[in-house]
């Protein structure tokens, strides 16, 4: 995939977890094995790989672990990540979706940030998405809040800042392994006490991450979301009860944080997740936007260089073409 002679593999472990789409998953693990010195693949899809196939992966530095949830498993998604992280031999770990990519230079920039600043717990970079319509492949900016994102402060202020300028960066960051394992354990404990499956569950892990430490996003192109592959998505129910559920979970999570104002956090989430319980005003705005969209077709950007330059995202041309090629879109 990459010219190995000039690419030193980064000393970090990428955790890939999956429950379907094995071909895509293995292509992802192979991609990471070219740029990082350890990949751990936790696979829930049956039949599991044969010994021959497992040995082929091992030769590339990919460890394969078959996984089966049992009736006591409360959260297979997090449990698979925990198993993978616990087996990692490196100090730094990043979890990747089975069909998405982190760039070499994006990972390297985050790695360098963590190496140079011992007070940083996790670090990501800039994100874009690959999409497809009738006309072909095009690209969009994802999570504009990551631009210049830096969350270095005391615990309460970190939590407020992340809730206000929200992006799910903790899920996709490069982490110090021990902190990552702690945060997953903490999140699983809360989901275990209060099982629920709402569209907002991710924020528990995100704020647990802020309790654990400082974070930031570099200006490098780091994460490429795959919006072409249509894999199963979670719950889409809406309504006020979702905010209530999340608030109860946050109460447990932030119990030991002094002087934390839950209502301030929830106000931020209400404005960042307006589609969950649209106010009449929001409903009107959404309606007007739909009407405008009918008449004004927004030009899709099918030149990725244009998108990256417009958004002032740093990237390396070879790195980028290598990533896109590996996604076989």
Keywords:
single chain, 329 residues, alpha/beta, 12 helices, 10 strands, globular
Summarize the topology.
Layout: E1 10-18, H1 22-35, E2 36-43, H2 51-59, E3 62-66, H3 76-87, E4 92-96, E5 101-102, H4 104-116, E6 120-133, E7 136-142, E8 150-151, H5 155-164, E9 174-176, H6 177-193, H7 202-212, E10 214-226, H8 240-253, H9 262-272, H10 280-295, H11 304-310, H12 317-326
Helix pairs in contact: 3-6, 5-7, 5-9, 6-7, 7-8, 8-9
Helix and strand run: EHEHEHEEHEEEHEHHEHHHHH
Class computed from helices, strands and strand pairing = alpha/beta
Query: Care to count the β-strands?
Result: 10
Beta fraction: 15-25%
Distance between the termini: 15 Å
Radius of gyration from the alpha-carbon trace, in angstroms: 20 Å
Mean pLDDT over the full residue set: 93
Uncertain segments:
none
Specify the helix fraction band.
40-55%
How many helices in DSSP terms? 12
Q: In a few lines, what is going on in this structure?
A:
With 329 residues, the protein is of the alpha/beta class. It contains twelve helices and ten strands. Helix 6 (177-193) packs across helix 7 (202-212).
Describe it for me?
The chain is an alpha/beta fold and 329 residues long. It has twelve helices and ten strands. Strands 1, 2, 3, 4, 5, 6, 7, 8, 9 and 10 form a ten-stranded mixed sheet that branches. Helix 1 links the parallel strand 1 and strand 2. Helix 5 packs antiparallel against helix 7. The chain is globular and about 60 Å long. The two termini are 15 Å apart.
């Amino acid at each position: 995939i990459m010219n190995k002679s000039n690419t030193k593999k980064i000393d970090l472990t990428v955790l890939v977890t999956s429950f379907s789409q094995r071909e895509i998953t293995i292509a992802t693990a192979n991609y990471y094995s070219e740029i990082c010195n350890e990949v751990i693949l936790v696979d829930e899809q049956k039949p599991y790989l044969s010994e021959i196939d497992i040995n082929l992966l091992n030769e590339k530095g990919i460890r394969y672990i078959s996984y089966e949830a049992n009736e006591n498993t409360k959260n297979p998604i997090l449990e698979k990540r925990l198993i993978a992280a616990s087996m990692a031999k490196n100090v730094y770990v990043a979890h990747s979706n089975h069909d998405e990519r982190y760039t070499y230079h994006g990972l390297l920039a985050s790695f360098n940030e963590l190496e140079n600043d011992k007070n940083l717990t996790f670090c990501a970079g800039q994100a874009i998405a690959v999409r497809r319509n009738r006309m072909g492949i095009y690209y969009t900016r994802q999570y504009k809040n990551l631009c210049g994102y830096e969350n270095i402060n005391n615990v309460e202020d970190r939590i407020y800042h992340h809730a206000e300028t929200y992006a799910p960066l903790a899920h996709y960051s490069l982490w110090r392994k021990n902190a990552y394992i702690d945060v997953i354990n903490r999140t699983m404990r809360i989901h275990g006490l209060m099982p629920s499956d709402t569209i907002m569950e991710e924020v528990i892990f995100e704020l647990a991450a802020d309790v654990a430490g400082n974070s930031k996003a570099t200006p490098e192109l780091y994460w490429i979301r795959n919006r072409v592959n249509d894999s199963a998505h979670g719950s889409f129910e809406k309504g006020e009860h979702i905010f209530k559920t999340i608030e109860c979970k946050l109460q447990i999570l932030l119990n030991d944080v002094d002087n934390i104002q839950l209502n301030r956090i929830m106000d931020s989430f209400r404005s960042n997740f307006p589609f969950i319980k649209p106010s009449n005003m929001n409903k009107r705005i959404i309606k007007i936007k739909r009407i405008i969209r009918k008449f004004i077709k927004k030009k899709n950007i099918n030149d990725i260089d244009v998108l990256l330059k417009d958004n002032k995202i740093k990237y390396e041309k070879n790195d980028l073409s290598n990533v896109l090629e590996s996604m076989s879109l």
